[in-house]
Backbone:
């Protein structure tokens, strides 16, 4: 089964539980027995963001990983601190937000495209993470409303973003609504930036530091309201 490795954790002395994101079955947790023994052949490829062909035996409750053959190691990403932090972080987040044993083919393709881009690009910074997360959230069904006001539904000028309501809000609705906590000013340029993060191709995703900070804030507040899972924050080492 073609799978990305998301995470591994120890279980007993020689065993590990490995979280995989497979094309066929979505996120799965498999038991890798004896993986920590020095000669274990599987072990080297069970690091985050390796693409492997995994041989899995499906038990009643526990699924066993019996073999892992590397398909793509993304060696340029591994050789670069910034890039490996980015790829490692997206695996960490996927491990949290993906539902278990539910195929997410579009997100699988998104990860594949993203890692291939990261492998070959010269410029890598955390704007790619923000874009990746927005794209993933949209594919999981959490699409913010940007065209019309999310409260009245009318095609009016919107000056605010409400994470609670899930999109842009017009002046009238802002003054009428009680839930104004975390409602942020949101100008036309910021709206364009958010659209770019959601729909742009990887090489187009660029923005100023100030804009990026605002978009990051927006994303994490939005996540806090709309995903039941707590998304970890990216490494402070990331530029
Ligand atoms: Zn409105």
Residues:
């Amino acid at each position: 089964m073609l799978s990305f490795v998301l995470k591994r954790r120890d279980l007993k002395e020689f065993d590990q539980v490995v979280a995989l994101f497979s094309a066929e079955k979505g996120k799965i947790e498999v038991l890798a027995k004896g993986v920590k023994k020095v000669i274990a052949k599987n072990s080297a490829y069970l690091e985050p963001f390796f693409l492997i062909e995994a041989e899995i035996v499906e038990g009643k409750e526990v699924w066993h990983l019996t073999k892992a053959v590397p398909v793509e190691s993304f060696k340029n990403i591994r050789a670069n601190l910034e890039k490996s932090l980015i790829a490692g972080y997206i695996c960490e987040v996927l491990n949290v937000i993906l539902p278990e044993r539910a195929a997410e083919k579009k997100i699988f393709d998104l990860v594949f495209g993203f890692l291939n881009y990261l492998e070959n690009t010269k410029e890598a910074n955390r704007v790619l993470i923000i874009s990746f997360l927005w794209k993933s959230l949209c594919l999981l069904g959490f699409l913010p409303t940007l065209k019309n006001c999310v409260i009245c539904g009318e095609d009016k000028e919107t000056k605010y973003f409400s994470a609670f309501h899930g999109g842009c809000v017009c002046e009238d609705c802002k003054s009428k609504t009680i839930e104004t906590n975390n409602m942020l000013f949101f100008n036309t340029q910021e709206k364009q930036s958010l659209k770019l993060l959601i729909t742009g191709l990887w090489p187009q995703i660029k923005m100023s530091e100030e804009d990026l900070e605002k978009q990051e804030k927006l994303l994490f507040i939005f996540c806090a309201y709309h995903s039941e899972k707590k998304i970890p924050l990216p490494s402070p080492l990331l530029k």
User: Anything to note?
Assistant: The beta strands are 2-11, 15-22, 26-32, 51-58, 63-72, 158-162, 167-170, 183-185. The mean pLDDT is 91. Residues 151 and 169 are 7 Å apart (CA to CA).
